[in-house]
Write a structure and sequence with these properties.
Blueprint: E1 9-13, E2 19-24, H1 30-44, H2 55-58, E3 67-75, H3 76-85, E4 96-103
Antiparallel strand pairs: 1-2, 3-4
Length: 129
């Protein structure tokens, strides 16, 4: 949880006691801002599709064939949200199902080749699966 605090407002006064400036401190600390930026960077590094995997891995051409679909699971929380959204409808709500991803590449034994961003695909050479 971020450590935001309540805002503090200070009034700077002149020698006669008149307010000459009002300063309000941010409720967010430097650490809070750093954590928010790091979290945003993390979210931006994930695939924007349904898998949510790190883009550097999921979009790398050398990982084609290393992902598989495992068991199907029902998310009861998503189903409850769907049920609430359809409240009043006579149609029954089907459970929300997802598939678990399997990814078994051993990156120590079989590292990803570096992508040449000037080409469409990397030189897979001996790394091809």
């Amino acid at each position: 949880m971020l450590r935001g605090r309540t805002s503090s407002t200070f009034h700077l006064r002149d020698e006669d006691g008149n307010v000459v400036r009002t300063v309000t401190e941010s409720p967010w600390t430097e650490e809070d801002r750093a954590l928010m930026l790091a979290y945003r960077m993390y979210l931006n590094s994930l695939c924007s599709g349904d898998c949510g995997q790190p883009r550097a891995l999921a979009h790398h051409p050398a990982n084609d064939g290393w992902y598989g679909v495992g068991e199907r699971v029902i998310c009861h929380a998503c189903t409850a949200l769907k049920r609430a959204a359809n409240e009043g409808s006579k149609e029954p709500v089907k459970p929300v199902e997802y598939y678990v991803l399997d990814h078994d590449r051993d990156y120590d034994a079989n590292p990803l080749p570096v992508l040449d961003l000037n080409r469409d695909t990397p030189d897979l050479g001996a790394f091809a699966a």
